[in-house]
Write a structure and sequence with these properties.
single chain, 490 residues, mainly beta, Thrombin, subunit H, 2 domains, eight-stranded mixed beta sheet, seven-stranded antiparallel beta sheet, 9% helix
């Protein structure tokens, strides 16, 4: 059993069977021990409902005329098939393994890798903040919402194993996801239990028996080595990132006096005046329906080192927040949110200042700056000390070209900043933070708001801002937002 998207690309190839040559008892791809068992399939069955766009019904069965000699070879064993009617328990720890990439955009592993991951509630995974309804009944999510751990390219089709009474139960098949190990985007797996009838029908011509029990929770950190399936499959029984500073350096203390930190939602923002903060709409939208939204949107001014309390920091609870009425959570268009606090921010404090609002578009090539406490590399941990980096304003046509964002940048509300060569960018945890250009009069001018991009600091994927969407400074505030500002302020 593997993923349909692994079989689909080669199904019409004259040499498909050789391409899908299967090796059992493999451990190191670079070393041949002589214990590997090679087999060539003679039949391929892709689920007739497989959708190449949505990856619905992402399952493929391979048949081998030359069987695996399970009774003679104790180095090879079976995984139990998840029974029909068994829904993985939210929070359950399971295990995924493969030789895939050890990081997004990185090389594959020569040695078999494994990882413990947790089943994630379907409604959470299908919410507007994560996969926005893309999780079909034939799928489920498993991973860690904080990011940093996931299956990746090269793991597709591999097993997600949950342990039930000491038996390895094949619960999912690695299918898809947005990138690898990105914060807020766990891996997506084909739901074996939901596909049990199809598996049984194609292999033995009978439907799967119904099992209503749920798999019990396991607490192992690594998959045990002594697992054995007591009831294998028989005739009678039974995987499309928000942002941080990559490639930057520690900011100078006191340089970013207008920056604020939303610790509970992992975003940044900018002080506009004594009562108003501006951030990204996707930061506010993620918590807008929570009963404690205003608590979650509490922000801290005069923050520098998040692990050291210096006594100068002050946290404010908002009185209200206003998301742009035309914000689109799918395209991240109009990605701007205003937050008002009833308690005034003390701008007489020499360590706190507002930022100026842009009155014109910056010229292409203009060197500006972005800052935040986001991840210092894609899928990495957030910084504890404020980081900053220089980012050049990029030409719209280049950034929107087929080699970059291919028409996804709305010229009216987004712009790109960064480098097309990659290596420097904002990343996860920088969302909502400021892209600032310095005026001839030495004033800090807010040109953009960190919004979104493809990963962090990848080649041909610079940052965008409300004037832009992907790249170093992800969203930039453009003149189009002044009407929004004035409507809210006055």
């Amino acid at each position: 059993m593997t993923a349909a998207h692994c079989c689909e690309p080669v199904k019409n190839h004259n040499n498909w069977a050789q391409i899908l040559k299967t090796v059992a008892n493999e451990y190191s791809q670079f070393t041949t021990t002589g214990d590997e068992v090679n087999r060539i399939p003679d039949r391929m069955i892709i689920h007739e409902g497989f959708d190449t766009k949505t990856l619905d019904f992402d399952i493929c069965l391979l048949h081998f005329e030359q069987s695996f000699e399970l009774e003679k070879d104790d180095r090879i064993d079976l995984a139990c098939l998840a029974n029909k009617g068994v829904e993985p328990v939210d929070g359950k720890r399971c295990y995924v393994a493969g030789w895939g990439a050890v990081g997004e955009g990185e090389a594959q592993s020569p040695i078999l890798q494994e990882l413990s991951v947790n089943i994630i509630d379907r409604e959470v995974c299908n919410s507007d903040e994560i996969y926005r309804g893309g999780i079909q009944p034939s799928m489920f999510c498993c991973g860690r919402l904080e990011g940093g751990f996931d299956s990746c390219q090269g793991d597709s089709g591999g097993p997600l194993i949950c342990v039930d009474n000491g038996e390895p139960v094949l619960t999912g098949i690695v299918s898809w996801g947005f990138g690898c190990a990105r914060k807020g985007f766990p891996g997506v797996y084909a739901h074996v239990s939901k596909l049990a009838d199809w598996i049984h029908t194609k292999t033995f011509g009978t439907t799967a028996p119904v099992e209503s029990t749920s798999i019990s929770l396991g607490q192992m950190i690594l998959l045990p080595t002594d697992l054995q399936c007591e009831k294998p499959l028989t005739r009678t029984g039974e995987k499309l990132e928000i942002n941080k500073i990559v490639g930057g350096a520690q900011a100078n203390r006191g340089a970013w006096r207008w920056i604020v930190k939303f610790s509970r939602i992992g975003c940044g923002g900018s002080i506009l005046n004594s009562n108003w903060i501006v951030t990204a709409a996707h930061c506010c939208h993620a918590v807008k329906d929570f009963p404690n939204t205003l608590d979650l949107l509490s922000f801290t001014v005069n923050e520098f080192d998040t692990q050291t309390f210096e006594g100068v920091e002050k946290t404010f609870k908002p009185a209200e927040f206003i998301i742009h009425e035309n914000y689109d959570h799918r395209t991240i268009d109009n990605d701007i949110c205003l937050i008002r606090t009833s308690e005034k921010i003390n701008l007489e404090n020499p360590d706190i200042d507002p930022v100026c609002i842009s009155t014109r578009e910056p010229p292409v090539g203009r060197k500006c700056f972005v800052a935040g406490w986001g991840a210092v590399k894609e899928s990495g941990q957030g910084a504890t000390v404020l980081q900053e980096i220089q980012a050049a304003i990029l030409d719209h046509e280049i950034c929107n070209g087929p080699d970059a964002y291919d028409g996804q940048i709305n010229r009216d509300t987004m712009m790109c900043a960064g480098t097309m060569s990659g290596g420097f960018d904002s990343c996860q945890g920088d969302s909502g933070g400021p892209l600032v250009c310095v005026s001839p009069g030495r004033e800090p001018v807010l040109q953009g708001i960190v919004s979104w991009g493809f990963g962090c600091a990848r080649p041909n994927a610079p940052g965008r801002d409300p004037n832009s969407q992907y790249g170093i400074a992800k969203n930039f505030v453009k003149l189009t937002f002044f009407r929004f500002f004035y409507k809210c302020f006055f």
